[in-house]
Amino acid sequence: MRSELRVLLLILWAGTSQCAGDLHPDWFIMNGTDQVRLPEIQMAYSGMNITYPSHLHPIYQNGSAISGSFNGSLELANSSIDLCLSDFDPSSILNASSLQSGLFQDRCARIDLNSSGRGEFVLPDQGSGIYALTASAENHTISAMPLLVLELPLSVDAPKSISPGDDISVKVTLPERSFARPLLIVAVILSNAAYDNSSLSLVSGDCGMNATMEIDGNSREISADNISMAVLMDLLILMPPNSGIALPDLQGGEASCTLITDRDWEEGSYILTCLAVTEDMQLAGVSQVGLEVAN
Hints:
By secondary structure, this protein is mainly β. It is built from five helices and 23 strands. The longest helix is centred in the first third of the chain and has 11 residues, at 3-13.
Protein backbone atom coordinates (compact mmCIF):
# COMPACT_ATOMS: atom_id res chain seq x y z
CA MET A 1 0.00 0.00 0.00
CA ARG A 2 1.29 3.42 -0.90
CA SER A 3 2.79 5.48 1.93
CA GLU A 4 0.54 8.45 1.06
CA LEU A 5 -2.53 6.34 1.81
CA ARG A 6 -1.14 5.17 5.13
CA VAL A 7 -0.46 8.76 6.20
CA LEU A 8 -3.94 9.93 5.21
CA LEU A 9 -5.55 7.11 7.15
CA LEU A 10 -3.60 8.18 10.21
CA ILE A 11 -4.52 11.83 9.63
CA LEU A 12 -8.19 10.95 9.54
CA TRP A 13 -8.15 8.45 12.35
CA ALA A 14 -4.76 8.49 14.00
CA GLY A 15 -4.76 5.77 17.13
CA THR A 16 -3.45 1.49 21.93
CA SER A 17 -3.70 -1.95 22.81
CA GLN A 18 -6.39 -3.28 25.10
CA CYS A 19 -6.35 -2.57 28.79
CA ALA A 20 -5.23 -5.52 30.88
CA GLY A 21 -8.81 -6.20 31.94
CA ASP A 22 -10.18 -6.09 28.38
CA LEU A 23 -8.82 -9.32 26.92
CA HIS A 24 -9.87 -10.74 23.56
CA PRO A 25 -9.03 -14.32 22.52
CA ASP A 26 -6.22 -14.63 19.97
CA TRP A 27 -5.01 -11.06 20.39
CA PHE A 28 -1.99 -9.06 21.47
CA ILE A 29 -1.61 -7.14 24.73
CA MET A 30 1.17 -4.61 24.12
CA ASN A 31 3.25 -2.95 26.84
CA GLY A 32 3.80 0.80 26.67
CA THR A 33 2.26 4.10 27.70
CA ASP A 34 1.96 6.17 24.49
CA GLN A 35 -1.36 5.53 22.80
CA VAL A 36 -3.46 6.82 19.93
CA ARG A 37 -7.09 6.25 18.96
CA LEU A 38 -8.01 4.10 15.95
CA PRO A 39 -11.26 3.34 14.18
CA GLU A 40 -12.49 -0.22 13.89
CA ILE A 41 -10.12 -2.01 11.51
CA GLN A 42 -11.28 -4.97 9.42
CA MET A 43 -9.02 -7.01 7.14
CA ALA A 44 -10.12 -9.71 4.70
CA TYR A 45 -8.01 -12.09 2.62
CA SER A 46 -8.86 -15.40 0.93
CA GLY A 47 -12.16 -15.75 2.79
CA MET A 48 -10.61 -14.97 6.18
CA ASN A 49 -11.71 -11.92 8.17
CA ILE A 50 -9.86 -10.29 11.06
CA THR A 51 -11.31 -7.41 13.09
CA TYR A 52 -8.99 -5.43 15.34
CA PRO A 53 -10.91 -5.44 18.67
CA SER A 54 -9.50 -2.34 20.36
CA HIS A 55 -10.15 1.37 19.84
CA LEU A 56 -6.73 2.33 21.24
CA HIS A 57 -3.33 1.39 19.91
CA PRO A 58 0.27 1.64 21.20
CA ILE A 59 2.96 3.70 19.52
CA TYR A 60 6.70 3.39 20.14
CA GLN A 61 9.66 5.67 19.67
CA ASN A 62 12.59 4.52 17.58
CA GLY A 63 14.97 2.48 19.78
CA SER A 64 12.47 1.82 22.58
CA ALA A 65 11.69 -1.69 23.78
CA ILE A 66 8.67 -3.37 22.17
CA SER A 67 7.17 -6.12 24.27
CA GLY A 68 3.85 -7.67 25.12
CA SER A 69 1.93 -10.89 25.38
CA PHE A 70 -0.33 -12.96 23.17
CA ASN A 71 -3.66 -13.90 24.70
CA GLY A 72 -4.67 -17.07 22.86
CA SER A 73 -7.88 -19.03 23.03
CA LEU A 74 -8.02 -22.24 25.07
CA GLU A 75 -7.67 -24.23 21.84
CA LEU A 76 -4.09 -22.89 21.63
CA ALA A 77 -3.14 -23.80 25.23
CA ASN A 78 0.25 -25.51 25.59
CA SER A 79 1.05 -25.02 21.90
CA SER A 80 3.54 -22.84 19.98
CA ILE A 81 2.82 -19.99 17.58
CA ASP A 82 4.94 -17.97 15.17
CA LEU A 83 5.21 -14.19 15.51
CA CYS A 84 6.36 -12.14 12.52
CA LEU A 85 7.11 -8.45 12.11
CA SER A 86 6.85 -7.05 8.58
CA ASP A 87 6.33 -3.80 6.74
CA PHE A 88 2.65 -2.87 6.77
CA ASP A 89 0.97 -4.50 3.77
CA PRO A 90 -2.48 -5.99 4.36
CA SER A 91 -2.05 -8.67 1.67
CA SER A 92 1.11 -9.92 3.39
CA ILE A 93 -0.34 -9.61 6.89
CA LEU A 94 -3.01 -12.14 6.06
CA ASN A 95 -0.71 -14.54 4.23
CA ALA A 96 1.27 -16.25 6.99
CA SER A 97 3.34 -18.51 4.72
CA SER A 98 4.72 -15.55 2.73
CA LEU A 99 5.94 -13.94 5.95
CA GLN A 100 7.63 -17.04 7.32
CA SER A 101 9.39 -18.03 4.09
CA GLY A 102 9.99 -14.68 2.41
CA LEU A 103 11.69 -11.36 2.94
CA PHE A 104 10.82 -11.04 6.64
CA GLN A 105 11.87 -14.48 7.81
CA ASP A 106 14.59 -12.97 10.03
CA ARG A 107 11.89 -11.04 11.92
CA CYS A 108 9.95 -14.17 12.90
CA ALA A 109 10.14 -15.99 16.24
CA ARG A 110 8.34 -18.93 17.83
CA ILE A 111 6.84 -18.54 21.31
CA ASP A 112 5.35 -21.16 23.64
CA LEU A 113 1.90 -20.60 25.13
CA ASN A 114 1.02 -21.70 28.65
CA SER A 115 -1.98 -23.71 29.84
CA SER A 116 -4.14 -20.57 29.54
CA GLY A 117 -3.04 -19.89 25.96
CA ARG A 118 -0.87 -16.91 26.92
CA GLY A 119 2.76 -16.21 26.00
CA GLU A 120 5.17 -13.30 26.52
CA PHE A 121 7.42 -11.85 23.83
CA VAL A 122 10.03 -9.14 23.19
CA LEU A 123 10.55 -7.83 19.65
CA PRO A 124 13.96 -6.84 18.22
CA ASP A 125 14.71 -3.14 17.84
CA GLN A 126 13.29 -1.67 14.65
CA GLY A 127 13.81 1.53 12.73
CA SER A 128 10.93 3.96 12.47
CA GLY A 129 8.06 2.87 10.24
CA ILE A 130 4.62 1.31 10.06
CA TYR A 131 4.81 -2.43 10.69
CA ALA A 132 2.46 -5.38 10.98
CA LEU A 133 2.68 -7.86 13.86
CA THR A 134 1.13 -11.21 13.03
CA ALA A 135 0.59 -14.46 14.91
CA SER A 136 0.17 -17.70 13.00
CA ALA A 137 -0.26 -21.40 13.71
CA GLU A 138 0.33 -24.11 11.11
CA ASN A 139 0.86 -21.45 8.40
CA HIS A 140 -2.53 -19.83 9.08
CA THR A 141 -2.76 -16.25 10.35
CA ILE A 142 -4.77 -16.15 13.56
CA SER A 143 -4.17 -12.52 14.55
CA ALA A 144 -2.70 -9.35 13.06
CA MET A 145 -2.26 -5.74 14.15
CA PRO A 146 -0.49 -2.58 12.94
CA LEU A 147 2.51 -1.40 14.92
CA LEU A 148 3.82 2.18 14.80
CA VAL A 149 7.52 2.87 15.50
CA LEU A 150 8.05 6.62 15.18
CA GLU A 151 11.14 8.77 14.96
CA LEU A 152 10.09 11.92 16.79
CA PRO A 153 8.21 12.58 20.04
CA LEU A 154 5.77 15.50 19.74
CA SER A 155 4.72 17.87 22.52
CA VAL A 156 1.24 19.35 22.02
CA ASP A 157 -0.06 22.38 23.91
CA ALA A 158 -3.82 23.00 23.59
CA PRO A 159 -6.72 23.93 25.89
CA LYS A 160 -8.39 21.11 27.78
CA SER A 161 -11.86 22.58 27.31
CA ILE A 162 -13.62 25.18 25.16
CA SER A 163 -17.15 26.41 24.45
CA PRO A 164 -18.77 25.97 21.01
CA GLY A 165 -17.58 28.82 18.80
CA ASP A 166 -14.25 29.29 20.60
CA ASP A 167 -11.00 29.14 18.65
CA ILE A 168 -8.57 26.34 19.57
CA SER A 169 -4.96 27.51 19.83
CA VAL A 170 -2.53 24.66 19.19
CA LYS A 171 1.27 24.61 19.52
CA VAL A 172 3.35 21.60 18.47
CA THR A 173 6.96 21.36 19.67
CA LEU A 174 9.53 18.97 18.17
CA PRO A 175 12.94 17.89 19.51
CA GLU A 176 16.05 19.69 18.27
CA ARG A 177 17.19 16.71 16.17
CA SER A 178 14.20 17.28 13.86
CA PHE A 179 15.45 20.67 12.66
CA ALA A 180 17.70 19.30 9.90
CA ARG A 181 14.95 18.47 7.39
CA PRO A 182 11.60 19.83 6.24
CA LEU A 183 8.53 18.40 7.97
CA LEU A 184 4.82 18.87 7.37
CA ILE A 185 2.79 19.41 10.56
CA VAL A 186 -0.89 18.43 10.53
CA ALA A 187 -3.44 19.12 13.28
CA VAL A 188 -6.85 17.40 13.18
CA ILE A 189 -9.74 17.47 15.64
CA LEU A 190 -12.56 14.92 15.64
CA SER A 191 -15.17 14.00 18.23
CA ASN A 192 -15.11 10.72 20.14
CA ALA A 193 -18.50 10.02 18.58
CA ALA A 194 -16.96 10.31 15.11
CA TYR A 195 -14.29 7.76 16.04
CA ASP A 196 -16.99 5.45 17.40
CA ASN A 197 -18.76 5.61 14.03
CA SER A 198 -15.62 5.17 11.91
CA SER A 199 -14.17 2.08 10.30
CA LEU A 200 -11.37 1.09 7.95
CA SER A 201 -11.82 -2.05 5.84
CA LEU A 202 -8.90 -3.58 3.92
CA VAL A 203 -9.85 -6.28 1.41
CA SER A 204 -7.43 -8.27 -0.75
CA GLY A 205 -8.79 -9.77 -3.98
CA ASP A 206 -7.81 -10.79 -7.49
CA CYS A 207 -7.58 -7.13 -8.55
CA GLY A 208 -5.33 -6.04 -5.69
CA MET A 209 -5.93 -4.39 -2.33
CA ASN A 210 -8.88 -2.05 -1.78
CA ALA A 211 -9.53 0.19 1.20
CA THR A 212 -12.93 1.48 2.30
CA MET A 213 -12.95 4.36 4.73
CA GLU A 214 -16.15 5.30 6.56
CA ILE A 215 -16.78 8.06 9.05
CA ASP A 216 -20.19 9.08 10.42
CA GLY A 217 -22.01 7.21 7.66
CA ASN A 218 -19.97 8.64 4.75
CA SER A 219 -17.65 6.21 2.97
CA ARG A 220 -15.25 6.11 0.05
CA GLU A 221 -13.59 3.10 -1.59
CA ILE A 222 -10.24 3.47 -3.28
CA SER A 223 -7.77 1.10 -4.87
CA ALA A 224 -4.40 0.98 -3.18
CA ASP A 225 -2.86 0.47 -6.62
CA ASN A 226 -4.19 3.79 -7.98
CA ILE A 227 -3.45 6.46 -5.40
CA SER A 228 -3.01 10.11 -6.39
CA MET A 229 -2.85 13.29 -4.32
CA ALA A 230 -6.10 14.43 -5.96
CA VAL A 231 -7.84 11.30 -4.69
CA LEU A 232 -6.38 11.78 -1.23
CA MET A 233 -7.55 15.38 -0.99
CA ASP A 234 -10.97 14.31 -2.19
CA LEU A 235 -11.18 11.96 0.78
CA LEU A 236 -11.26 14.96 3.11
CA ILE A 237 -14.98 15.27 2.27
CA LEU A 238 -15.43 12.43 4.77
CA MET A 239 -14.60 14.83 7.59
CA PRO A 240 -17.82 15.43 9.61
CA PRO A 241 -19.20 18.93 10.37
CA ASN A 242 -17.84 19.03 13.95
CA SER A 243 -14.18 18.69 12.94
CA GLY A 244 -11.23 20.76 11.81
CA ILE A 245 -7.84 20.44 10.14
CA ALA A 246 -4.84 22.78 9.85
CA LEU A 247 -1.33 22.60 8.37
CA PRO A 248 0.77 25.12 10.35
CA ASP A 249 4.25 26.23 9.29
CA LEU A 250 7.15 24.78 11.27
CA GLN A 251 9.67 27.36 12.47
CA GLY A 252 12.53 26.63 14.85
CA GLY A 253 11.03 23.38 16.05
CA GLU A 254 7.60 24.87 16.78
CA ALA A 255 4.37 25.06 14.80
CA SER A 256 1.33 27.05 15.91
CA CYS A 257 -2.17 27.18 14.46
CA THR A 258 -5.77 27.99 15.28
CA LEU A 259 -8.58 25.53 14.71
CA ILE A 260 -11.91 27.30 14.28
CA THR A 261 -15.16 26.01 15.75
CA ASP A 262 -18.66 27.46 15.52
CA ARG A 263 -21.60 27.72 17.87
CA ASP A 264 -23.27 24.69 16.28
CA TRP A 265 -20.57 22.27 17.44
CA GLU A 266 -21.98 19.47 19.56
CA GLU A 267 -20.89 19.29 23.17
CA GLY A 268 -18.81 16.31 24.26
CA SER A 269 -15.34 14.81 24.16
CA TYR A 270 -13.00 15.43 21.22
CA ILE A 271 -9.54 14.19 20.21
CA LEU A 272 -6.86 16.51 18.85
CA THR A 273 -4.32 14.62 16.73
CA CYS A 274 -1.04 16.22 15.65
CA LEU A 275 1.31 14.60 13.16
CA ALA A 276 4.77 15.27 11.73
CA VAL A 277 5.17 14.00 8.16
CA THR A 278 8.35 13.92 6.05
CA GLU A 279 8.68 15.19 2.48
CA ASP A 280 8.25 11.66 1.14
CA MET A 281 4.99 11.30 3.11
CA GLN A 282 6.35 9.07 5.88
CA LEU A 283 4.92 9.47 9.37
CA ALA A 284 7.66 10.73 11.74
CA GLY A 285 5.66 11.51 14.87
CA VAL A 286 2.14 11.61 16.27
CA SER A 287 0.53 12.75 19.50
CA GLN A 288 -3.07 12.97 20.70
CA VAL A 289 -4.69 15.02 23.46
CA GLY A 290 -8.26 15.13 24.70
CA LEU A 291 -10.47 18.21 24.64
CA GLU A 292 -13.97 18.87 26.04
CA VAL A 293 -16.51 21.08 24.27
CA ALA A 294 -19.17 22.38 26.67
CA ASN A 295 -21.14 25.55 27.29
